[in-house]
Amino acid sequence: MPATEELATFDRFRFDGFDDAPERFARLQPGLRCVPSGLPAIDEHRDIVFVPAAGMLESATGGLFDRTGAPLAAALHRHGERVLFGDRPTASTTAQLPDPSATIDCDVLCLGRGFHHFGHMLLEGLARAFAIAQMPEDTPLLWLGITQFPTSRSGRRLLQGLGVSPDRLLHLDQPVRLRRVFVPRPALVYAHEVHRDVANTYLAIAEELGAVTAPTTDQPLYLSRAGLQQNPDARRSEAALESWLEREGIAVLRPETLDLRDQIATVNRHRHVFGPRGTALRLTFFGQGPQQIVSFHDGFPPVSSLQNQLVTGKSETFVNVAQPGDVARWLRDHGYARHRFEPNGSAASNASTAGPAAGCSALDDHALAHRLTDDPWDLIGRLEMTTRCRQRGDWAAAAEHAAIAARLHPLDPEIRDLAATMQRKAGRWARVPRVVKRLLRR
Q: Between the N and C ends of the chain, which has fewer C-beta atoms within 10 Å?
């Protein structure tokens, strides 16, 4: 049986740049319960009706129900105390149980709610996977809420890491009676509870994939989202950050470009891992070596990010910066870059008043100009100045800064396109009569 749960305290976490961190943490603390050892029980049920999922998000219906139509408590999917899935067989107000179209006589292991989103599958979809090793190897497996396991390359690798062949998965799209079903209680419930031993599931996956390795390098590793950004400006900014990081001796990884095994092995080799909050940082679940993790957040971290630390038990710093320029500044100020940034003149004055998370977006035009004088090859600063010049209609200056940015990052087609666009606009603006320019700028 698991030991008594404990409530995670504020001093267990490290926050940087959040003035109201104690108050914000206190509101999330009820969802940060931790069971230091042991795993939940596995419930056994007979004559259960499976109903496939229908609908979207919190309005979805389906799950496991007994003969009276009552939902199985162990199979409910919760966020905190709130049930999100599994409590209604249909959308009807009478909640009438549909008639099963068939019966499965063999034992079935139900692993709770599944997800097509890889990050949610890692955090919540594997919360009951510890039970796979406790059942016979031929026991069929059933994830609720999805008709099939994620078919992406990473999804297939994840299944391999669990030691599960695809033919063990049940793909049910009609109501079915289950003669006997085993339902493990979840070892992780979002915004509620984490059993520390859930970490063994991820370590076992890494071992099965041959990706277990102790940290061997002090070179920092940044997990980039540049390849996933939909907004062109965000893609350019993140790509500029990648270029700066590589010049400063920081390794950059776009996880989606590698096989899951290689993603895990790469992250495990580095003692210092940085990145914006999200799925990529959950790759640290798969290693047990000592690592320092830094996650960058636009606002106070959500409870799911705090739960990551409860899973890994590793040291993590939650930093209140989100813009790529500010991320670069933070890394320089904290000694992770090859050369610490020590601005001069008014740039230093602005940096000192803006706080440790200040970057080029926090500097005024005069201070940013000083920064570019000190470091003419600052790609992030060049793109920031291009945007500012464009906003005030100074097309000649915007074209100059964009052209330098394109030379600094010649392989990025979007930065090249930006430079070409600014050059065209500068040429058109040069042909506008001076008196018209004055009127347009008023």
A: C
